[in-house]
């Protein structure tokens, strides 16, 4: 399926795994806390209108207007969408991934999104890839997307989920087996008789969290379930079948029996730290959040509500529920499930990402938070001292009732079988009144961009100099996440359109002295351990260090999306040729690289540690075009050159 889509969108390059291929992009999506940079870049490129079939700007993440910053962003984004021929999904309509799959997704198309969980749309047989905002701006210009041709892993599902076991368990089990790095350079393609038993939103939970394995994407067949889903969305005409060929040969095969799964939990502080829920130590839970794009389909929330029936949220637990779309919220309200949640003492939140990205509902100090979302890095909920466990909605409801880790079966006993009767609606409650369609070109041309004081110019990096001498401003450890580099929370999210302000908080929680130190150094290098930049697609994790003068990141390994963001924003991503050299250098050591540009082109760089008097080798795991982008000083300069040709 992956190859069929790639071949149908092929422009140039190689179809050999690991090599660079260029693909036509049909759709893009952006969301409010990352997109201002995307639209500023698009504006800087100077095209009058996007050149995709469909681009959508979602105002969905931060709806807490605690000061002028977020409304400034939303008004700018709406004006930019109106000007450039982009759909707007207004605040309150829903979280980008849930709305996009339901209202815009088309099997067989390619969608690039400025969010790491864009692969959610793989649930309907679409190839959806999460990238940085600059890549989305590039896709909007119609310039083909560069991609490392992925390997394709077949996950062959058999059996069916038992009541009280959710699609969340499927992806947690895969994370347990494969780890947070195991999916690098791979697309996970789900087949087998078990697939037929999974409704589209269940598939979406799995595809969404494929991002946690570091995967390029995940995809399910466009089969009878997808046809049923699109028909229920009154979009039957968007359906085209997409199935794997009977004689398909995959790069790797994983077998997974759905019937054998039991409730699981991802324990702090990594999504692959997975254990059976029954083995998690029974500690008091302070907070439960049933929400996020990952796990709040109609059936998810209805099942959680059924677990609550006849029970109440434990007096020591703060339990909130944030549903991913207005459509789902209204259906659940119509069918009485919201009332069941309210009767149980659950607090209903706005239709937005909210707590998932630390915008509200921060857990208490040392508090245990149990969430149905997809990430549990330190600080992801806004408090680095809290511990986040990821579970299914059924287990979250049971935990909220018991005040400690519990499964639906623990609460319901044999009645847990009743959960099997809940399915997605036969017909969804379709109401697109919160979607603004693109304006006709003439009208769009007259729209003025509205730039409040929070909208500051996009910083543009310099091309690398031929001689670099710079100190190490930070020696970071393994698994530094984009949350460590640019903290999540309402306060910080609303600074993302204002880099001079936001950069002051770069690495704020990880190393509070970093921003000042890097600025004082003028130009510097960050040294990192394994999996540097894991987590979200947040390009601010590259833009802020760039703004503070960071010229290179030299790490043992770098997460895929973050590496792309570094390239796009003019920071040279380099890997220790011998990871042992990481231990030999120290923070504040002065590193020197001669003939830097020529060495970048050769993808092998000799670095001299002037402080300790030794030299070591670094390599650049970059494609030809990425090398060109780095040498240009980032994607914006590169793109302008390309479009001028
Ligand atoms: Fe929003 Fe969380 Fe989903 Fe990201 S993972 S789109 S922050 S709900």
Automatic annotation (TrEMBL):
EC code: 4.2.1.3
Domain of life, source organism: Bacteria
Enzyme class, first EC level, given as a word: lyase
Keyword terms of this UniProt record: Lyase
Name listed for the protein in its UniProt record: Aconitate hydratase
Lineage: Bacteria, Bacillati, Bacillota, Clostridia, Eubacteriales
